[in-house]
């Protein structure tokens, strides 16, 4: 081993001792050192705390897109028993936000339901023996379709208390079930997404919709048979879908029947109005891919798509409305949801194309026509059965309608018109008989007035 003299230090190089002898430098280095040490220790503490947090705490994040979001929001806002002065002050939810739901009212007037729900920000609550921190926040990202910011709720508790979540979700779900019992949830479209319309509606009893003899049973039995055959379809690799087409004049009870049937099956309803402007083929296809589970898909005004069938521009743009091929593709394209019960309605079956009536698209076509004598009698019984004990009033009413020619093809009246007459004469059957002339369709009266028709 040989030693060689170390090279001379460069001119700019100074021994460290010399530097520290310099009081100005020493003060600065000391400060910088302290700062660095503080930063490192802060970082270490920070990392330590976050590691500790990760190990000791459990976070559950729920996105607004998840079904449980609304349940949990309602669960958090529940009044809780106040235990102890400090706990009760610590666990009060002080930040609330208002949720207003518009209820559907028969009179057409708005009815509103208000309730307070947990607002944005952090809250602490106590459930059984666990403290839970709740953080409801809006994210900076947006849903491109609706323009609404994404939202989450994060529930945090001690890892040791993780089993409390099963309890919380169980309670929140049970709460939602009770609130929805006897109700039908209606979904409508918002961009390419589905959203619940207002509060769940009270179920409409199936027997409140009066169709011609046997029609309701025929459809309801078919749907029930289909629901019982899921395995059969799956085993054979056939998409588990069934379609119904209900056609007939306005006010014959098509939509009412579908809503009542959904209630009977304990299903919700997902409605798309095919005549809606802005409903493009793409949007329809996307919506049909994710129809909410356990709902009947209701495609209203199916004829709208047929009016549009030749409207494709040379550049391939289909315009702002759904087209015939768009509807067919959405119904049976590869992308269409695998499980589905769809009801299509129309007032103009003559405008539809044969191609629609194909298994999987439409398996059953049913006409829901103008009011028949059978329906008028059944409706009478529902409204006046209790006061018309001997049925004489019903006989007079039916004879009057017959005399007016309302059961023939010439002057057909609608079940909606009969219901309107009965509602106007609630509890007054003679009033209903006296006003029966009002059931004559207005179009007919207009035609007589201008001399197109002569009175019967
Ligand atoms: N057959 C019926 N039984 C009981 N109510 C009926 C019947 N038909 C119509 N109505 C009443 O008339 C109103 C309109 O009925 P509905 O909306 O179901 O008719 P629709 O056939 O869907 O009409 P449209 O073709 O215009 O959509 C509802 O309030 C409904 O209660
Ligand atoms: Mg309708």
From TrEMBL:
This is BCS1 N terminal-domain-containing protein. GO terms for biological process: mitochondrial respiratory chain complex III assembly. Belongs to the AAA ATPase family. BCS1 subfamily. One of its GO terms (cellular component) is mitochondrial inner membrane. It comes from the Eukaryota. It catalyses: ATP + H2O = ADP + phosphate + H(+). Keywords: ATP-binding, Hydrolase, Membrane, Mitochondrion, Mitochondrion inner membrane, Nucleotide-binding, Transmembrane, Transmembrane helix. Pfam families: AAA, AAA_lid_BCS1, BCS1_N. Residues 32-209 form the BCS1 N-terminal domain. SUPFAM superfamilies: P-loop containing nucleoside triphosphate hydrolases. Residues 240-372 form the AAA+ ATPase domain. Its main location: mitochondrion. GO terms for molecular function: ATP binding; ATP hydrolysis activity. It is a single-pass membrane protein. It is found in: Mitochondrion inner membrane. It comes from Calycina marina.
């Amino acid at each position: 081993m040989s030693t060689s003299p170390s090279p001379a230090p460069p001119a700019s190089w100074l021994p460290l001792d010399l530097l520290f002898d310099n009081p100005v430098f020493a003060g600065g280095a000391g400060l910088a050192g302290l700062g660095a040490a503080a930063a490192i220790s802060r970082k270490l503490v920070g990392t330590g705390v976050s590691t500790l947090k990760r190990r000791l705490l459990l976070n559950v994040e729920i996105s607004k897109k998840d079904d449980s979001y609304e349940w949990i929001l309602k669960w958090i806002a529940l009044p809780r028993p106040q235990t102890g002065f400090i706990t009760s002050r610590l666990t009060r939810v002080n930040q609330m936000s208002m949720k207003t739901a518009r209820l559907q009212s028969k009179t057409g007037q708005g009815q509103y339901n208000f309730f307070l729900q947990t607002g944005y920000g952090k809250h602490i609550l106590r459930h059984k023996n666990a403290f839970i921190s709740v953080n409801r926040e809006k994210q900076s990202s947006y849903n491109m379709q609706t323009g609404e910011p994404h939202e989450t709720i994060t529930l945090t508790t001690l890892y040791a208390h993780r089993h409390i979540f099963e309890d919380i979700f169980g309670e929140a779900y049970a709460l939602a079930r009770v609130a929805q019992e006897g109700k039908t949830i209606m979904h409508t479209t918002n961009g390419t997404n589905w959203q619940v319309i207002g509060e769940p509606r009270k179920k409409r009893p199936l027997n409140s919709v009066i169709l011609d003899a046997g029609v309701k049973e025929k459809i309801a039995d078919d749907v029930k048979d289909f629901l019982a055959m899921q395995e059969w379809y799956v085993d054979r690799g056939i998409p588990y879908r069934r379609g119904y087409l209900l056609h007939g004049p306005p006010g014959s009870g098509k939509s009412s029947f579908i809503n009542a049937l959904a209630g009977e099956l304990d299903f919700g309803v997902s409605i798309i109005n095919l005549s809606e402007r802005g409903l493009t083929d793409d949007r329809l296809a996307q919506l049909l891919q994710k129809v909410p589970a356990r709902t009947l898909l209701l495609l209203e005004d199916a004829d709208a798509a047929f009016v549009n069938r030749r409207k494709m521009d040379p550049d391939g743009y289909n315009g702002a409305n759904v087209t015939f091929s768009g509807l067919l593709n959405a119904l049976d394209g590869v992308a269409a949801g695998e499980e589905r019960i769809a009801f299509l309605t129309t007032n103009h079956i003559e405008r539809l194309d044969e191609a629609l009536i194909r298994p999987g698209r439409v398996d059953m076509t049913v006409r829901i026509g103008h009011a028949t004598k059978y329906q008028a009698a059944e409706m009478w019984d529902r409204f006046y059965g209790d006061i018309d004990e001997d049925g004489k009033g019903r006989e007079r009413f039916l004879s009057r309608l017959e005399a007016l020619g309302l059961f023939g093809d010439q002057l057909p009246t609608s079940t909606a018109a009969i219901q309107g007459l009965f509602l106007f004469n609630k509890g007054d059957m003679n009033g209903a008989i006296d006003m029966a002339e009002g059931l004559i369709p207005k179009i007919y009266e207009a035609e007589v007035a201008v001399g197109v028709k002569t009175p019967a």
